Amino acid sequence: MRETRGEKIFNGFNIALMIFLCAVMIYPMLFVLGRSFMLEIERAANPLRIFPRVWDLEAYKFIFREAVTIKSSYFITILRTVAGTACNIFFTSILAYVLSKRNYPLRNIITTLVIFTMWFGGGLIPTFLLYKSLGLVNNFWVYILPGLISPWNLLLLRNFFMQIPDSLEEAAKIDGASELTIFFRIVIPLSMAALATISLFYAVSHWNSWFDSLIFINDKKMWTLQLLLREIIRNANMSDLMDTDSITSLPPTESVKMATVVVATLPILMVYPFLQKYFVKGVMVGSLKG
Prior knowledge:
The protein is an all-alpha fold.
């Protein structure tokens, strides 16, 4: 079927628009990546250049060899993301499965309480006092337990579970399957798209979090990578994050900041493409029923 003149113009405009948007999105990433390898002299002489003529690794050497805090923060952030996402998915899926049962007597009450937490919070000071009384201050579990179940993700997953035909569960019960067997061997395999989508939501949230580390953690060894990145950007001279003996070997501050951004964002960027295909399917299917 031949395209009309108007369709050709429209398609050409769409292609040009998509190319422009891609360039706008990709340019900042390439700019940061190139600047992290650029020498101070070249950066001053060419403020808009993306890729350096001479590739310098001093900023990355400083981050991984001298700034020990970076390594511990990397470990804490990875551990938080992996363990936190696993706990989030486990408890969110269990509660979502329970709330998806229309014959469960407390279904509406619990759902209302969950929605209530989306609208109202206790405030920062009461929250801090509560966490302190529970022994969560300066404790790794402060990264996981307070946000164990996200109300939004819970409702999304509950709506997804409600679309699974009841006939599948009825057939399984006739064969003698228990609720746990139905959940783990029928419901979970049928919900992989939604679980992958919510897993990415949780993982990105854990990876990017820094405020809870700022408020509830005093030990720098337990800081998350994002909080350390914030401190590096705030303290241009890096004096608070290294030994005084290493000040003379400090690479250009701008290169260190750019390299830290690359180090902080690269792992999550590598994971995202493998789960991106589940996004549309998981979110759209889970939003059809309320």
